[in-house]
Amino acid sequence: MDYLQAVEWVHGLPRIAGHCGVENTGLLLEKLGHPEKDLRFIHVAGTNGKGSVTVMLASVLKEAGYKVGCNISPYVLDFRERFLLNGEMIQEEVLARHLTRVREAMEELQAEGWDSIVEFDAVTTAALLWYAEEKCDIVCLETGLGGRLDSTNAVQNTLVACITAIGKDHTELLGDTYEKIAFEKCGILKNHCAVVVYPVQPQEAMDEIVVRAQKANCSQMVVPELQDFYFYKGRPFENRINYGGYGLQIPFPGKHQAYNASVVVEAAIALTDKGLDVPDDAIIEGIRKARFPARIEILSQNPLIILDGAHNVDGAKALADTLHTAKVQDLTAVIGILNGKGADQMLQILSPYIRKLYTVTPDSPRAITAQQLAEIARRFYSDVTPVSTVPQALQMARSEMENGLLVCGSLYLASEARKVFVR
Length: 423
Hints:
The protein is α/β, with parallel strands linked by helices. It has 15 helices and 17 strands. The model has no long low-confidence stretch (mean pLDDT 95).
């Protein structure tokens, strides 16, 4: 397959499997000679923040001189964003070659009666093939959904596992309590790995994490202490902190990103106990240089344009906290949300910062329609307009905004909007 054929093939695979991802991916990797066994991993799971932690860690390790694979999901503009090596996307022909190998392995499994492979299984396997071929020193690996049964959990050689903020998302699959969700996330813990945990967790989740770390015989468990944070005053959306003696300039706004950065610091320190050399300067510079689109991304300061993939209630809370700290109000907003994400709560949380709202339908079969979302929004907003397309909504919003524009509610929406703003 060439690149376009390979991408069309992988996107055409089912999204929901008859068997769990870890089982599917394990079988694919077995067919392909277990390339993952030659790699070492930092594995990152959580409800919110896992992508930010993954890219910051990869940037830190690159700064320390290592050859670093970074596998994240979903992508915003280019499918190849999911496959990074020292911050650079995989070449099209290389990705096509590895997806072709995955397809051949999948067809062998199908001939043997195993017909359960989905898109995420294939994507994860292709990434591991590439990282093994490139002889990466270490791979920063973000889970897709959950952890225990996730495709990425087919790997074994985990040096450090990071558990980011746990919230109630995908409850139909992961459970309806913090304890159940934490149990699934902690499925990535491997014997004798180190564990680093986001410092602000529901107590029910934290209790379960402690139990799971003990049962996995983890070498150490670190939870950053809140008293070790000092937040510097600065310009709106600037995020400078001192954490435990590390002066950090975090490229992503919000207190939650400062907490994510502390997870990165502690994971880097834990790696030194595993034999890697990660100097303090690499930690500081790596965090400063990290880039990740659509995470409270300030596309313009004048006029103010904010793009955020906040896709659930906790994401909306983090965004609202950031807007409050920056003293931003009376925004014009374009919002689109998927079903099952707590749209009513998200809209209520963001309402103090929005004067005029345009609702849209994100490009997803799970999307709430613009009209349905507008009906929900009218409980919290006096000026709501449903719009049939995202480009039309952006055009209308930009022509009428006074104090700035906010686009948020889904990474699907963020992806479509960013193409309009960033050319």
